[in-house]
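Appendix B, example 12.
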Amino acid sequence: MALIQGQSVDSAVRNALPPRNLGDAERLVSGALGAVVALWAIRRGGLAGGLATLAGAAMIARGTSGYCPVTETLSAKPAERQIARKQGWRSAAAAASSVTIAKPVEDVYRFFRDVANLPRFMRHVESVTVIDETRSHWVVRAPLGRTVEWDATITEDRPNERIGWRSDAGAQVRNIGWIEFRPAPGGRGTEVRAAIAYEPLAGQLGRLVAQLWGEEPGKQAHDDLRRLKQVLETGEVPTPALRRADADAAMPDAA
C-alpha cells in the first residue's frame, strides 16, 4: 500500500509540473549560462546585480526544469498543427470564443451576414467591400503598423444557424472560420459561437509578435464578440471619447 501511495504521489507531482519542451543540450547551456550570470551578479552588486541575479536564476530554473514559457508560447497546439496540415499551411493560429446577445437569432444573423457591418465591431478590420453575394474584399490592420488584404468567400450559409468562410487563393493571410447562432437558454437572446484559424505572417515568430502587440487571435475573437454584443444591444461601441462625453453630459451645470 505504501508503494502504491508513493507511486500515486509521484504521479501527482509529475502531473503538476510543466511539460519539458527543451532538449538536453538547451538545458545544459541554459543552466551553465545562468550560473555564470548569477556569479557575475553577486560580484557586481547594486541594482544591476540584483536584476542580473533574477535573470540568472530564471535561466538556471529553465535548465533544471527543461521548460521554457517562451518556447511554449511559440509552439502550436495539437489542433493548430492539425489545421495547418489539413489546409497545407506552414503553421496555424486558431481561437474560439462565445457570447450571449440579448437579441433574437434572426436579428443577430442578419447583422453579421451583411459583411459591410463587420468593421463596426471587428477592431482590426479597416474595411470589407462586397464583391458579390458570397465574395468580399478585406483590408485588415496587422502588427507593426502594416495592413494586409485578401478576398474571402462564404462557403456555408444556413440562415439563422451558421456562416462559414475562407480566404481565396493568393490571400496575404490565409484564413478560415465560422460563426454559429443558437437561441440562448431561458429566452435570453442568442448564443453566438465563433472560431477562426489563420496562417501567421512569418510563421511561429509571427505568433509571438502578435501576442506582444496584443493581436493574439484568442483575444481578438473575445474582444470582437464583446463589441458585437455592444453594437447590437446598445447601437454603439463605447470609446474613451464617448465615455468622456457621457460623463460630461451627466455632470450638473455649474450655478
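The first strand starts at residue 93 and ends at 101. The beta strands are 93-101, 125-130, 135-141, 147-158, 162-167, 175-183, 190-198.
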